[in-house]
Specification:
Shape: globular
Protein name: FAD-binding PCMH-type domain-containing protein
Helix content: 25-40%
Keywords: Flavoprotein, Oxidoreductase
Number of strands: 12
Organism: Butyricicoccus porcorum
Strand order of the largest sheet: 4-5-8-6-7
CATH topology of the largest domain: Uridine Diphospho-n-acetylenolpyruvylglucosamine Reductase, domain 3
GO molecular function, one term: oxidoreductase activity
CATH architecture of the largest domain: 2-Layer Sandwich
Bound molecules: flavin-adenine dinucleotide
Order of helices and strands: EHEEEEHHHHHHEEHEEEEEHH
Number of helices: 10
Number of domains: 2
Radius of gyration: 18 Å
Structural class: alpha+beta
CATH class of the largest domain: Alpha Beta
Amino acid sequence: MYTIRQFLCPSSLEEAYQALTAARNNTVLGGCMWLRLGRRAIGTAIDLSALGLDRITDTGDTIEIGAMVSLRQLETSELLRQQYGTLFRDAVSGIVGTQFRNTATVGGSVYGRFGFSDVLTALLALPAQVRLYHRGTVSIEDFAAMPYEKDILECIILPKQAYAASYQHMRFQATDFPVLTCAVSCRDGIHRISVGARPQKACLAYQGQAPDAQAITDSLNFSSNMRASAEYRRKICPVLIRRALEEVQACR
Ligand SMILES: Cc1cc2nc3c(=O)[nH]c(=O)nc-3n(C[C@H](O)[C@H](O)[C@H](O)COP(=O)(O)OP(=O)(O)OC[C@H]3O[C@@H](n4cnc5c(N)ncnc54)[C@H](O)[C@@H]3O)c2cc1C
């Protein structure tokens, strides 16, 4: 169980950032679904609830997903469905249960860069950007590869353009962590293919016009954990990529 010495609900991102960087153990809270499982001794817990980051906003050219948007909002957003089909719904609907997804946030899910992340896999299949309060805006693939820094994830920025997209995952049991995840998007003949739960941080595995599922698999590293061996993951990877490509082909 984690402990919190002091609780802060700042009224600006600047106030939140000053508090975050004031001491090593000061921590931003998302939905606390992951944090609560750890044993961190948090100095000041910084709650972003008052900053209006719990919305999915159409800005005209882009769609901004605030850090405090819940996974359930991702799953049910009509705005996201119109642009990216069922990508987000399919990516998050297998995560634990509805009550859990009502609480877990996009900010916590992306900032965490978990090696099993469905959310990161889905975002990497789109030319998404991450807006960080201190560092500024970086591409999702750069963010995924970055070392952990003390910063505040404000929002995810997506192009407001229609993509054909598909999300595939392999789970041995519904609601368990995935054994492998794969997302594909296509627009103007350019495919973006991401693979996650290898079990390492998801990565953008391919971007181009002529994806070859086996060649993409051959370019990736896989590891073993208690759920599956590296060898098993390597075997099912081209299957998931092909299924996603077929689905994308069908919805174009
Ligand atoms: C039992 C269980 C099963 C799960 N299964 C899956 C699964 O199958 N697939 C999947 O993709 N995910 C899964 N997850 C992860 C889950 O979906 C969330 O990603 C996770 O709970 C973190 O989200 P949160 O909002 O609860 O973040 P928190 O737990 O509040 O925070 C997580 C980390 O992010 C930091 N943080 C939070 N918000 C911000 C921000 N705005 N800026 C900077 N840092 C921030 C926190 O300081 C902390 O270090 C699972 C989690 C649990 C506990």
